[in-house]
Amino acid sequence: RNMSSAGPEGRKKMRECEGLIDSLVYYIQGAIADHEPNDKATENCVCILHNLSYQLEIELPESYAQSIYVQRRNISNNDKTPGCFGTRSRKVKEKQQDTPLPEEKSNPKGVESLWHSTLIRIYLSLIAKSTRNYTQEASLGALQNLTAGTGPMPFAVARTVVQKANGLPSIRAMLHVSQPAVKRTAVSLLRNLSRNTSLQNDIAREVLPDLVSVLPECVPGSEVACETTASICYTLFNLTQSSSHNARLLLSTHGLPKVIAISINDSNMFSKASRAASVLLYSLWSHTDLHSAYKK
């Protein structure tokens, strides 16, 4: 676990170590099957996988990343399903952006397991079943790592979390835990997920009221809480920017007074939370059909 946080070279060596990732996944699967999601070894395994998923898309060898792309042949231009893997080269990524998802391997090995739907479902299961804060935070953090960035892989993982594995209820529950670090990571994951325009309505329907409910009445005092508040505002920004319906949902759940209070907090005028709330307010005002409702 310590070695897995030793930087890019350490992560690279551990990802390449034959059988290591497979063994970690195997152990966690056994712990879940035995209804023991709270033991220390499971926590350690998940924390290692969390660290190994950090900057995964960027750190994949370029030749490997490019070779996994399925060349687009005989597929209509209307098919916008993104591919599953990123690459360091922006040009290649742009060229391959409309690549279809390759078939998932039924028996992934090594580094392929890190973005496979099997492990995504394991993380979601641990989020729902474990009561260890570090295990919950590491599971959320691994999904946060996998959904970071703008390449095809993060969007494919996001779609699996939201639509294929029905992960939003488990993530939503983490918004209401007492542990600040767990809540912050859950919000950061939702912020990543909400960047995917095709998932925004699903996310808004499932978690927007909860996001509003955990917004503080003003800029919070602690750094972690301030960071969480800023992430909530940016998530709400993503969900409402292109949707008048979602903006109205924010209004009906009494989010506007909170956002206004956070944006004009005098004691911390330049905090990231105040800035994020101001950006959200500016975006909300762009929905001209809601102006009279806002004024009321």
Architecture overview:
It is built from 17 helices and no strands. With 296 residues, it is mostly helical. It folds into 2 domains: 1-64 and 110-179, Leucine-rich Repeat Variant (Alpha Horseshoe); 196-295. The N and C termini lie far apart (54 Å).
CATH class of the largest domain: Mainly Alpha
Roughly how many Å apart are the termini? 54 Å
Number of DSSP-assigned strands: 0
SSE order in H/E notation?
Answer: HHHHHHHHHHHHHHHHH
Write the layout of secondary structure elements.
Elements: H1 8-16, H2 20-33, H3 40-52, H4 56-59, H5 62-68, H6 90-95, H7 117-129, H8 133-146, H9 152-164, H10 168-173, H11 180-193, H12 200-214, H13 223-240, H14 244-252, H15 256-263, H16 272-285, H17 291-295
Key words describing this protein structure:
single chain; 296 residues; mainly alpha; Leucine-rich Repeat Variant; 0% strand; ARM-like; Plakophilin/d_Catenin; PKP2 protein; repeat; Armadillo
Could you write a compact summary of the structure shown?
This protein is mainly alpha-helical. The chain is 61% helix and 0% strand. The chain folds into 2 domains: 1-64 and 110-179, Leucine-rich Repeat Variant (Alpha Horseshoe), CATH 1.25.10; 196-295.
